[in-house]
Amino acid sequence: MLNIKTKNRLLIFLSIFVLSIILTIFLFKTLRNNVLYFYSPSEVSKSDENAFKNNIRLGGMVKPGSVKTDNNEIKFIVTDYKKEIIVIYQGTVPALFAEGKGVVAEGKLQDKKFFLAKRILAKHDENYMPPEIKESLKQDAR
């Protein structure tokens, strides 16, 4: 038989353990609802129509010759060299956005051919340096 002090310690330990499990479950459910997954055009084309009701991130390469601008709207094709999806975006694109370069578009899939982007993220390699920093380094070297 356990004495009162041991029972109290056991009760406190079990309470903390149960509370930590509940908090962990809550945290994972919250994160799962807020995480945007990165999909390639091939992954999008393989899945069913209802798989992408929420915002997603579509990633791949900007197909050379596909960028068309009209006023504030930009249309381009994202490809993974197997499948292609047309992206429609209203706004200014990042300075690194270019044909033949990597891009991640965040938004909603209209169907398996069209993607309405709310945000465009341009990818760069590990050697990238923003133009402002490159210019200031050139001036400092003089």
Radius of gyration: 24 Å
What is the chain-wise order of helices and strands?
HEHEEEEEEH
Q: Report, as a whole number of angstroms, the end-to-end distance.
A: 83 Å
Average pLDDT works out at 83
- The named CATH superfamily of the largest domain: Nucleic acid-binding proteins
CATH class of the largest domain: Mainly Beta
Q: Treating each run of at least 4 consecutive H or I residues as one helix, how many helices?
A: 3
Q: How would you write the strand order of the largest sheet?
A: 2-4-5-7-6
The gross shape turns out to be elongated
Total individual domains:
2
- CATH architecture field of the largest domain: Beta Barrel
- Secondary structure tally: strands: 7
The CATH topology of the largest domain turns out to be OB fold (Dihydrolipoamide Acetyltransferase, E2P)
**Helix content percent band:** 25-40%
Give your account of this protein's structure.
The protein has helices spanning 4-34, 41-46, 131-141, and strands spanning 38-39, 56-62, 68-70, 73-79, 84-90, 102-109, 114-122. The chain is of the alpha+beta class. The protein has a five-stranded mixed beta barrel with strand order 2-4-5-7-6. The longest helix has 31 residues, at 4-34. It is elongated, with a radius of gyration of 24 Å. The model has no long low-confidence stretch (mean pLDDT 83).
Write out key terms for the chains shown.
142 residues, alpha+beta, OB fold (Dihydrolipoamide Acetyltransferase, E2P), 2 domains, 3 helices, 30% strand
List the helices and strands and how they pair.
Layout: H1 4-34, E1 38-39, H2 41-46, E2 56-62, E3 68-70, E4 73-79, E5 84-90, E6 102-109, E7 114-122, H3 131-141
